[in-house]
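TICKET: design request
STATUS: open
ATTACHED STRUCTURE:
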């Protein structure tokens, strides 16, 4: 096995390699790991000395092979010298997410480099028990946050709030319920903004109309993803249209959920939800896939879409079902839950 080099530099590169979180259960801002046939070299600087000394060997063995010997190394010399010293090889594999500058530095140092897809991508398609436990906690947290938003609505306290104020409320509640923050920026979209699937919360004031909230909580590095759409304030002429669309979207969600069965192709879930909405006459307004995998990243495998068939449903898979209907210039409705296949 040609050694595989994992690199993270979330400060300069803007990309965080989640293989570190996956194996070590924490995410350094800068560091390296090298996985060889028998050894996992964890190379981090002095900021992580204490964490290096308390690595959970059983978890690492579970995820990269029980034969692996874990060797923590402090980052006090160039990674090229560390590889040469400990592995005595000039051949290395790197993931295709590394910066071009780092790739060239390896070449300049005399390494024979092969670029590969992320090593743990397929393995992360199904989750371990410890991962599912963290995911369930993240889901519990975001559901608690939603109940707080419902309370505000019931008390008419959403009226005249701005979208960005509700996002601030969401963040504070995530921390209050012992989450680690947002997995991604919460979408708070009122009125015609709700017809934009990835609207950014802004200064729009909330009053009578449709409010779409898509929010994510983070717990121990694992994400939740949760969307609801509700009516705020007094009912007006638009209310009946909203009620109709919400019923259709919820029906598509429930039909897709019932179709989940081990051994079926994940793409069939998308087909069921899409056909349901199409039969109701709104197929052209369902403008995104039915779902996606969730784990250390908010979007990961499997892709719940008919555009990418070929992935069979297995125990341990975690993915969303989130059909939506978006009427441009009017309003949109999305309904989303995370499914854990057990």
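STATUS: resolved
RESOLUTION: sequence designed for all positions
ATTACHED SEQUENCE:
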């Amino acid at each position: 096995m040609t050694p595989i080099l994992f690199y993270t530099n979330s400060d300069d590169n803007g990309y965080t390699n989640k293989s570190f979180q996956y194996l070590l259960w924490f995410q350094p801002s800068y560091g390296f790991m090298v996985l060889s046939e028998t050894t996992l070299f964890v190379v981090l600087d002095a900021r992580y000395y204490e964490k290096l000394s308390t690595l959970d060997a059983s978890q690492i063995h579970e995820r990269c092979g029980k034969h692996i010997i874990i060797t923590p190394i402090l980052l006090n010399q160039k990674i090229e010298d560390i590889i040469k010293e400990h592995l005595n090889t000039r051949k290395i594999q790197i993931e295709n997410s590394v910066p071009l500058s780092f790739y060239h530095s390896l070449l300049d140092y005399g390494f024979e480099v092969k670029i590969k897809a992320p090593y743990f991508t397929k393995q992360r398609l199904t989750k371990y028990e410890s991962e599912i436990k963290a995911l369930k906690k993240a889901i519990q947290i975001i559901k608690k946050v939603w109940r707080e938003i419902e309370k505000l609505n019931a008390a008419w306290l959403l009226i005249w709030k701005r979208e960005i104020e509700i996002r601030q409320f969401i963040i504070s509640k995530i921390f209050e319920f012992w989450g680690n923050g947002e997995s991604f920026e919460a979408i708070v979209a009122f009125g015609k903004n709700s017809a934009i699937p990835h609207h950014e919360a802004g200064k729009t004031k909330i009053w009578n109309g449709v409010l779409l909230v898509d929010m994510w909580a983070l717990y121990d590095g694992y994400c939740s993803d949760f969307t609801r759409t509700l009516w705020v304030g007094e009912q007006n002429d638009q209310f009946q249209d909203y009620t109709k669309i919400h019923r259709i979207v919820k029906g598509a969600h429930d039909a897709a959920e019932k179709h989940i069965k081990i051994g079926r192709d994940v793409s069939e879930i998308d087909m069921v939800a899409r056909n349901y909405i199409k039969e109701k006459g709104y197929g052209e307004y369902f403008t995104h896939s039915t779902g996606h995998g969730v784990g250390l990243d908010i979007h990961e495998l499997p892709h719940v879409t008919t555009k990418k068939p070929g992935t069979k449903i297995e125990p341990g898979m975690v993915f969303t079902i989130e059909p939506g209907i978006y009427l441009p210039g009017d309003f949109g409705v999305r309904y989303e839950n995370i499914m854990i296949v057990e």
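CLOSING REMARK: The longest strand covers residues 209-215. The chain has two domains: 4-120, 126-340.
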